[in-house]
Amino acid sequence: MTPQPSARERLLDAAEDLAALQGMTSTPVDEILGRARVSPATLYAHFGNKEGLVVEALKRRLARWDSTWQECVDEAVAPEEKLLAVFTALARHRTSLTPSRWCVFLGASAETPAPGNDLADTLASDTRLLVDRLEALSAAYLQGAPAKVLADRITLVYTGVLGMILRGSDAEAAIADGRATAALVIRALAGGDHAESASRP
Amino acid sequence: MTPQPSARERLLDAAEDLAALQGMTSTPVDEILGRARVSPATLYAHFGNKEGLVVEALKRRLARWDSTWQECVDEAVAPEEKLLAVFTALARHRTSLTPSRWCVFLGASAETPAPGNDLADTLASDTRLLVDRLEALSAAYLQGAPAKVLADRITLVYTGVLGMILRGSDAEAAIADGRATAALVIRALAGGDHAESASRP
DNA sequence: GTCTATACAAAGATAGAC
DNA sequence: GTCTATCTTTGTATAGAC
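Output (structure tokens, whole complex):
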């Protein structure tokens, strides 16, 4: 017999699953409690309130995303492939964990016009991780200021993939489109910056 | 004294403004009523329920976006510029109407895991308008199957811009990044043509 | 640490008068 | 068509026992 996880763990699992599937605000506390088979008092004893629980669940999920992504970066050899690994990681992330409707972090952000400090920090961490790691990988690939530009643009494309999934696109197709687009951006910024100058209005 | 708009109009205005600023689910009916200075019974007499009101407000906003975008397409001359006009339109749209946190349609979608039929249709209309118009403009620019691919990729980039705004990016910067990225995608799929070769057979 | 039972607040919707 | 007043449901959180 597998020993039953603690009430705390069950609550985190349930909160993560339901936030991923339905969104955090859309999920009532009762549903989390029912799924975790835990009583209300236990939740509030451990996490203070609903947002406290969600924040902990999001932090845990971000850590898992972080390590999945890092694995994919490590598996890649060429610098360009290391940059594109974020798309491989997204596909792997989506199949290894509870499937999310699009992105738990963007979803929580969209649902919460006025997040508390802890929640806001956690949501910002997701964006910061994206931009910072992409910038570090870019810097290894091309020198100077363009690294930040490249990181921002890949983040934009990556975010577009997530948004397309929210729009109802097939996830695999959206990821492939994003990857192809990002590859274009990488080559354009690495091969010379003439390609973007004509695009300004 | 400007004649006061009807209660129905005031309700639509209030619902649109608040959905744009805070999101639809996050905004209680009472707040809409307060802003519109209308009583509850009037709302339900006109729209049946909250979702009915929101759907009408979204339809009206979609029609305005549609015409703003079409104007920008018409103002552009070269086919590539017509494709990129969606970014010009986004900037114009955002300054001409009540500023929205990111995108009213994606926001409503993110907030509503199980939308009613009318709402789902309205939200899908937004995506359909994007993909269809971009595909039509693409077809005028390059022949054959790639038109659908190009439309999908520009939609992805455009959606990425909206997501970056949700992430907290400066809107102007995100739009410029998206436009540059889209220009890259267009040229790559057009077969390496430059902007000057606008007159193709 | 965890449970049962319950309090308290917010939100959506309706009744009936004018 | 619009208002005032109210009802119902749902959701968050707490009290007190084990």
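Residues 193-201 of chain A have pLDDT under 50 and may be disordered.
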